[in-house]
Hints:
This protein is an alpha+beta fold. The protein is 59% helix and 7% strand. The protein is flat.
Amino acid sequence: MGSLFRSEEMALCQLFLQSEAAYACVSELGELGLVQFRDLNPDVNAFQRKFVNEVRRCDEMERKLRYLEKEIKKDGIPMLDTGESPEAPQPREMIDLEATFEKLENELREVNQNAEALKRNFLELTELKHILRKTQVFFDEQEGGVNHTTESMTRALITDEARTAGASMGPVQLGFVAGVILRERLPAFERMLWRACRGNVFLRQAMIETPLEDPTNGDQVHKSVFIIFFQGDQLKTRVKKICEGFRATLYPCPEAPADRREMAMGVMTRIEDLNTVLGQTQDHRHRVLVAAAKNLKNWFVKVRKIKAIYHTLNLFNLDVTQKCLIAECWVPLLDIETIQLALRRGTERSGSSVPPILNRMQTFENPPTYNRTNKFTKAFQALIDAYGVASYREMNPAPYTIITFPFLFAVMFGDLGHGALMALFGLWMIRKEKGLAAQKTDNEIWNIFFGGRYIIFLMGAFSMYTGLIYNDIFSKSLNIFGSHWRLSYNTSTVMENKLLQLNPNSTDYVGDPYPFGLDPIWQVATSNKIIFHNGYKMKISIIFGVIHMIFGVIMSWHNHTYFRNRLSLIYEFIPQLVFLVLLFFYLVLLMFIKWNRYAATNPMPYSESCAPSILITFIDMVLFNTPKTPPTGCEVYMFWGQSFIQTVFVLVALACIPVMLLGKPWKIMQARKLANVQPIAGATSDAEIGGNSNGGSHGGAGAGGHHDEEEMSEIFIHQGIHTIEYVLGSVSHTASYLRLWALSLAHAQLAEVLWTMVLSIGLKQEGWLGGVILTFVFAFWAVLTVGILVLMEGLSAFLHTLRLHWVEFQSKFYMGQGYAFLPFSFDAIIENGGASSSEAE
């Protein structure tokens, strides 16, 4: 089979590169993205490798670019992203890049430091301006006397004793300090002054209305102006220490009004000059950042490519002459010629005359698993890999999941309207995928939705199909072909009787089946609508489930034949298939036989009243019970020879259990006795008896064909567990598919509840007021429909479908014990933000 159904054949190769050409050759391989290098220096510290200095230089360049990026984003400057990926620069170009980044960083840091100093100066002048304005009122009040202050926002902190002493000794000469403080610190500042100075200071404060910019971080802060009057040098020292503790800024403020006016004029002049200089500084900074923003994306790509190349070169070994680099790598077998062409291009670019050598090596290691994907199959492959990466050359379930996953989802989510909403959302993302992919975001939920856009579209499209089969659109039916029932009741009888039923054994039924899906007459049925849907959906759930499991068992046949596991083919695949077919596929056949032979219009003994229960029939079959006596005129069995066939089927199915349990271990034990072979490391039991499990024609790159020999006790235990799991799992997995029936009914009932309890209320309103009410009711119904029935129910159905594939389907053939192929790819490194594939691993 092609690589779509199995992983690519891989080869372990040894690569010899001349030291001068190694950089260019690895660069070409990174553009190609088809080579996974192995670390040949696992015991060497990362700081002791040959190219560690180059990696450090790249780290330093990345740091400078991140600094530029932060400054560009701070100013809101758009960064040019052409979507192109420039080639990795030559090693000699690193010096030019380093010089450019160093110059930009130094220039930007100098500009930022100058701007910060100017902003700090501007802040001080602005605060001084507010102090000179606000304190004029304070000085006027001081001249009029402290005792006349009655405002509620201030306190007279001079005690009565001080006032009395001052009156006897003449006018009191008060000293003062003025400054600004953060508004939120003012209450605590005032309390501390009161306690430390024992009420012998006088504080006045006024808020600065406009917020001020903090030059350190650019935040807007709210401050207040204060002035403190006191008497004596001791209080002055104490007040200044308190101001320093609360980080209040003190400014000189003259006592004379003329000096204050002169200082205010000087401050205003300096502020105007500072505004001019600040504007010029910001313009220069903006020009520098705009010029850097044009090339920043390309610079990031170049630096990350250089870093990835040197990180990869650190995985190589040096030969004894120090002139040749030796590497080991996994490559897809079909792409060896392409890789050799890339190596030649790299050699030509470097100007080397020594061609690179790519030798294929023989190995018994398990190669990595590489499944080629495109934008359509990538999401489905991700669902499979989330369970476990396939073992090398194991059958890949992803191609079949493209159909089975959305179909089983649609069985549970079947509604034409809800499916259309989901399909339109997926189609919108598909149509806009180029633009949406370019808008990279860190929103993980959106990335999940966008990554699964093709899954969402297919789930919606399949749900539209099953919605047509169920004849269900927002809990209502489509009368496309008309009904195949003819009512013999009048209108009043139909409207007044809630328990009316249609009799198929009458002229009410035309006799021809409905052309497509369910007859719309079932939408108006009240008493037996759910009963009918129960029987229908329960049976199709079992039918789809058994077919799905049988298909999974058949997939295991491809694994056994490809890996030449003759024992597993004879003693596992055949008994498993026979067991599943004779019991559970026979159960499916009974359903079709019942549908075909029994009908309301058929005469006895195949009338509807004679139809046996499939479940009771299956239980009697497994327990070898004699069926109960049927009603008069009916037959015990559905067809001739049923009892004998059922007995044979059960006996053969039971006989398959010891074959699965003991057949393979017994054959291994017999072969060891005949060959007189003791347990030897180097070959598995399957390789001994059933042929080379890696299919020796695949270059020696085996898929688990060379592990340590198992003891016979371990083989018996492993086989017993596997057999018990399969036998019991066949029963539980069949019942597990009933979730298709349960979630389908739940989805339909929720849709009907929303229509009945919400939207129908608005539709019953009349007049213009009814139109207004209907608008709001419809909006509420639409929100509930999208939020509950599409999103929540869709997520529930998605998870149940995922479980059916992981457990019920893939457990029949899929081991998932491999490891992913992680090639050295510049595209993947840049997409992951600079981490190399080996680092990401």
